[in-house]
Amino acid sequence: MQVAIAVVLVALGVWLFFLVFRLARGAQRRLAELAQPAEPGTRIGPISAEGPVRADGLIYLYAHDFIKPAPRRAMGSVPRDRAYACQTQDELDPEDFARQLLYAMLVEQLSEGRLSWRTVSRSPTFMPPYPHKQWELQLRQDQALPSSPLNESLQVAFELGRKGRARRPSDEAPEQTPDEFFTVEDLIERMLKAIRQEMTFWERGTCCSDLRHHVESALIAQGYLDAPARDTWLETVRRGRPTLNLEPVQALAQEAKALARRLETFRKRFGSPYALQPEKDEKGQLVDTDPALATKTEGLDDMPLDDCLRLTLHEAITAIKQLEPSSEAGI
């Protein structure tokens, strides 16, 4: 009896050994397949891309032509958000990336008459950046906006603004009309609210990264970018960089150049001399908006729209970032 039990135990041990051995060999082969680089000329994902790419998408795909390089950082600094050009892989300034996405989108709609604008007086906010502006840029939607990631978010922002005003008690607000103006700052905050409702907890980041990733997700859906790998748990919770679908992106090169010309035309028409011929100040920083605009309190109707728009976007992004966690990771 004892011999039989010993034989059974030995047989069971041998079977378990071979089972573990086969599982280990299978896992090893799987890891080797995942580590094997793709052969040159092969790609994973859609071969063709569909749908128009408007200003926000073109800024993203050709960021190396529109966005400033990343600023120098102090030794040991680890920023929470880092932006890269999808074609050159150069590191870019995340804040400038967000500003240029919004700027190009708004310039297109203003130029095509879908938005109206005005500047009105306001009390200073006493929030960075300094000096405090004593005016605000307001926008009104006159036509439906064409389909694009940020255009659709802006459409939602206008709708949220109109609904919010409609819910006000009649004794707290004057009569409202469908063609109301909203401040650019309020519109951007509502855009971010709409964008973040579509994101998971792990996908949310800074205001700059969320705007950028919103455009990125739409380009992935269209096939101009390939989504980053999600093979492991770590890749699921850490957002990787998408890969480029090179051929259809290169086909948009002329459209990107045309966008650059339209932005330059807008600046020439609505910009100040500082916008047309930027110069460096004593700190070596480029000054491309009229410094006197920030403290101007009279003659608001005659202010250059391009300078006002860029100043407002800079102030809006800076103010929103004040309410977010530190830009340094782990703080």
Widest beta sheet: strand line-up: 3-4-5
- Class based on secondary structure composition and strand pairing: mainly alpha
Oligomer: single chain
Number of helices: 12
Helix content: 40-55%
Give me the count of strands. Answer: 9
Average pLDDT works out at 82
Description:
Helix 2 (55-61) runs antiparallel to helix 4 (94-111), helix 4 (94-111) crosses helix 7 (207-222) and helix 5 packs across helix 6 (184-197). Strand 1 (83-84) and strand 2 (91-92) form a beta hairpin. The chain has twelve helices and nine strands. It starts with a helix and ends in a 9-residue tail after the last helix. By secondary structure, the protein is mainly α. The chain is elongated and about 105 Å long. A three-stranded antiparallel beta sheet has the order 3-4-5. A two-stranded antiparallel sheet has the order 1-2. 49% of the residues lie in helices and 8% in strands. It has one domain (54-322). Residues 31-46 and 174-178 have low confidence and may be disordered.
